[in-house]
Amino acid sequence: MSSITIFHLEGRRSDRIVWLMEELGLPYDLEFKRGDLMGSMALVRALNPVAPVVPTVRDGEDILTESGAIIEVLLARHAPGKLEPAVTSPDYPAHRMWMHYAEGTMCARLFSDYRAWRVTPPTARSPLVDSEAVVQFAEDFLAAHPWFGGAEFSTADIMMKFPLDVATRLNLVDETLFPRVAEWKAKIEARAAFQRALARARPDGMVGALPALAQHAPSGPRG
Ligand SMILES: N[C@@H](CCC(=O)N[C@@H](CS)C(=O)NCC(=O)O)C(=O)O
Question: Could you give the dihedral angle defined by the CA atoms of residues 27, 148, 96 and 13, in that order, rounded to the nearest 10 degrees?
Answer without folding.
Answer: -50
